[in-house]
Design a protein that fits this description.
The chain has one helix at about 80-94, and strands at about 20-25, 30-35, 55-65, 70-75. It has one domain (about 20-94). Helix content is about 15%, strand content about 35%. The longest helix is centred in the last third of the chain and has 12 residues, at about 80-94. The protein is built from one helix and four strands; from the N terminus they run E-E-E-E-H. The termini are far apart. By secondary structure, it is mainly β. Bound molecules: zinc ion.
């Protein structure tokens, strides 16, 4: 199949993450396993078409309990270990 069928269905370019797993650890820390779209039209995986997103990758979502502001940090492909989680929580507590 060399021909690509054009669909009329439009996909939004806003990269809304697909959350596969979500682990909350209190203190505003959540680890999420996400499938992501890079948003590149030239993406070889064709993630913009919504067919093959990248990942899954782990992200650390931290919510500031006083301001309510959320920051998302890329963690990596591997699930965070308990040691890593404990370290991050200690960092926040200090
Ligand atoms: Zn992509």
């Amino acid at each position: 199949m060399a021909t690509k069928k054009k669909t009329t269905k439009k996909t939004k370019t806003t990269s809304e993450p697909m959350i596969v797993r979500s682990n909350s650890f209190g203190a505003g820390i959540t680890y999420q396993l996400r499938m992501v779209r890079c948003g590149s039209a030239a993406c070889k995986k064709g993630c913009a078409e919504g067919e093959r997103p990248h990942g899954p990758y782990w992200y650390r979502v931290e919510r500031d309990l006083t301001t309510g502001k959320t920051t998302v940090k890329y963690h990596g492909k591997n699930e965070p270990t308990l040691e890593e989680i404990a370290r991050h929580m200690n960092e926040r507590a200090s």
